[in-house]
Specification:
Strand 1 and strand 2 form a beta hairpin. The chain has helices at about 15-25, 30-40, 45-60, 75-90, 115, 120, 145-155, 170-175, 200-205, 215-230, 255-275, 275-300, 305-320, 325-335, and strands spanning about 5, 10, 65-70, 95-100, 125-135, 160-165, 180-185, 205-210, 245. Helix 2 packs across helix 3 and helix 2 runs antiparallel to helix 7 (about 145-155). It contains 14 helices and nine strands. It is of the alpha/beta class.
């Protein structure tokens, strides 16, 4: 159990952060979970602790592979991740899964049910599953997913899987923080070529037609051929990698070895070419810009002067006496002068 060091009866941020970091390095699940909670928290006192934790964890260099997995609801992402996860841990890997659950815009709540859908993986001592609510983050990716990855890698997890909510803007967000991007598709369920979004196809490093079992095997093979043809229409990737299309059945544990072989081959080739490292560096730049934007937004809305003026200007915008543009300009000027 992680103790909460105190100084003069108050929480000592520095000591608590160091205690959590030491726990993370020692592969203490309780410390890791507590640290991620600190990172995800919006409370100022927790953010100070989180900053110390992240900085110390960044110094812990590990040879890791980050995998993004996406697909429409019903494609079988949870089953696929559980079966692939069991395969990876059986090979001696330590696996962490970050699943992002959509939050309700009305109640702000989320189901966080992925742990209940991955019962076998939850019980695996070499696996760690962390469901997080997307909150108001654009695209359904948890606000602090990047920071959580740093903590997980410092805790010794060498493979990190990030599952997106579904297809949409979340793909761009997840693609900007992983090494390998896997798109799961279905055959015979309206999810063939007519459902392709060009951007998602271009981002994919591999496409797997899931549920290729029973009466669906023939349709899956036809879809596989169609996707292979479609990929030839896209320009080659900068790293020289040619996206692979395959089929699998997570339910029947078929085709998963091949998919892991594809991912491992990708990692090996891009590390040899130097692109693996270059991509990580570009992602760090993206992380910097995202953090600046998030911090500015938070600072803007917590400014006492802005909060005081916002309610008045909102009423004027609602009743039509002022345009949203003019109101925004006033608020921004107020923020600059504060």
């Amino acid at each position: 159990m992680i103790s909460r060091p105190k100084e003069s009866g108050k929480l000592n941020p520095q000591l608590l952060a160091e205690a959590l970091v030491n726990g993370i390095f020692a592969k203490d699940i309780a410390a890791l979970s507590k640290a991620i909670t600190m990172v995800e928290s919006t409370k100022p006192e927790h953010q100070g602790i989180a900053k110390i934790i992240i900085e110390k964890c960044l110094s812990k260099k590990n040879d890791t592979v980050r995998i993004g997995i996406t697909g429409v609801p019903g494609v079988g992402k949870s089953t696929f991740i559980e079966r692939l996860g069991k395969l990876l841990t059986s090979k001696g890997n330590r696996l962490a899964v970050l699943t992002i659950d959509p939050s309700s815009n009305l109640t702000k709540g989320s189901i966080l049910a992925d742990k209940t859908r991955m019962q076998e993986l939850v019980q695996d001592k070499n696996a760690f599953i962390r469901p997080s609510p997307s909150g108001d983050s654009l695209g359904g990716v948890a606000r602090k997913t990047r920071e959580s990855i740093i903590l997980l890698e410092a805790a010794g997890y060498n493979i990190i899987i990030i599952e997106t909510v579904g297809v949409g803007q979340s793909e761009t967000a997840v693609h900007s923080m992983v090494d390998f991007f896997l798109l799961l598709k279905l055959a015979g369920a309206g999810d063939e070529l007519q459902g392709i979004k060009r951007g998602i196809m271009e981002m994919a490093d591999a496409i797997a037609i899931n549920k290729a079992d029973g009466d669906n095997i023939k349709r899956a093979k036809l879809a596989e051929v169609e996707f292979k043809r479609a990929l030839h229409l896209f320009p080659p990737k900068e790293n020289g990698w040619v996206p692979v299309v395959t089929s699998c059945s997570a339910l029947q544990n078929q085709g998963l070895e091949e998919i892991w072989s594809i991912i491992a081959s990708y990692a090996e080739k891009t590390k040899e070419s130097g692109h693996f490292r270059t991509k990580r560096q570009e992602q760090n730049k993206s992380w910097l810009k995202q953090h600046i934007e998030t911090s500015l937004k938070m600072d803007f809305y917590t400014s006492p002067l802005v909060k005081k003026k916002l309610e008045t200007l909102e009423e004027k915008v609602v009743n039509g006496s002022m345009s949203p543009f003019a109101a925004a300009q006033q608020l921004l000027q107020t923020y600059k002068n504060s």
